[in-house]
Amino acid sequence: MIKLKNKVFKTVSAICLSFAGFLSAQVNYYDLDHDNLQDEVTLESNLVTIHFGNKKTDSIELPEITALSNARIQYSNPYEIMIHYSGDRVLYGAVNFLYKKSWYVKNVNFYNPCQECEDQNIKILTKNINLPVKNINYATFEIDSKGFKSLNFFDHEGIIQSYGNLKKLYTDLSAYPLLADYFNETVLPDFKKKYPLSQKNVDDYNNIAFALLNNGNQKVAIELLTQIISKFPNRTVTYLNLADSYWNIGEKDKAKQHYNKYISLMKSQKKDLRKVPVYVYTRTK
């Protein structure tokens, strides 16, 4: 039935599934093939083993899923099982396996990791695979506690549509580097359309840009910060963030220009100069 030999997986990078609090195998019983015989599905470590009636089969070795817990088996449709998993910070997902002469990975679901969204089960994307398990490139399924490493699992429209306000978006951009990476130029038009810059949300704009620059997404951070300065030219902290972004990408002349503007505004607005980071003075020399 399921014929997955060890040699198939020798060509694949180490495959590991770590379950916190997972001390014994999960055993579920379904009639997967609708032959009125009970089929046994066992999940243990990183292996799923299927027994169709009285016929014992080999095991499906799962894709690499690390730092996740609470994996569980669920019957979905005839000849189909689903492996649910969850991790820290409200990360949800599921891998669907379909049997048709051999086992296939049907699709992978990834759910919005937004901690504060009203509906925490908003699905960002279902990625259809439909390939035999033995032919899968397991790098596609690499998952860590922050989410899928493959950016193909994110839908940029889903990112914007999933958030009711900018504070929630900032929270997740700060917490999920992968989400920050994918918040790129393609996302910006939808973002600006849904959240036009105003006096009311300028703090949130700045915070989102700050989260992006801290996660290495300097280009989009620079665009947002430049937009803020063009509309609010006396916003002191924005010059500091913009200078940091330019410095991070090696444009030191532009960085020095904005560091100096930041210091000048701090002085003219009579703000506490002790709050100026020490590195600012070093970088302006």
Helix/strand class:
alpha+beta
State the share of residues found in helices, binned by percent. Answer: 25-40%
Number of alpha- plus pi-helical segments: 10
The major beta sheet can be summarized as: 5 strands, antiparallel
* Element pattern in H and E: HEEEEEEEEEEEHHHHHHHHH
Average pLDDT confidence is 74
What sort of overall outline do the alpha carbons produce when their principal axes are compared? elongated
* Global Rg: 25 Å
Measure the end-to-end span: 71 Å
Proportion of residues in extended strands? 25-35%
Number of strands: 11
Low-pLDDT runs of 5+ residues are 1-23, 119-123, 149-156
Number of domains: 2
**Strand order, biggest sheet?**
5-6-7-8-9
Layout of secondary structure:
Blueprint (H helix, E strand, L loop, with lengths): L5 H5 L15 E5 L8 E6 L2 E6 L2 E7 L7 E9 L2 E8 L3 E10 L1 E10 L11 E10 L10 E2 L2 E2 L7 H6 L4 H10 L1 H6 L5 H7 L7 H13 L3 H14 L4 H13 L3 H17 L9 H6 L2
Antiparallel strand pairs: 1-2, 2-3, 3-4, 5-6, 6-7, 7-8, 8-9, 10-11
Structure description:
The protein has 285 residues and is α+β, with helices and mostly antiparallel strands. It has two domains: 6-153, no CATH class; 156-283, Serine Threonine Protein Phosphatase 5, Tetratricopeptide repeat (Alpha Horseshoe). Helix content is 34%, strand content 26%. The strands form three sheets. Strands 5-6-7-8-9 form a five-stranded antiparallel β-sheet, with no helix packed on it. A four-stranded antiparallel β-sheet has the order 1-2-3-4, with no helix packed on it. A two-stranded antiparallel ribbon has the order 10-11. α6 runs antiparallel to α7 (218-231), α6 packs parallel to α8 (236-248) and α8 (236-248) packs antiparallel against α9. The chain starts with 5 loop residues before the first helix and ends with a helix.
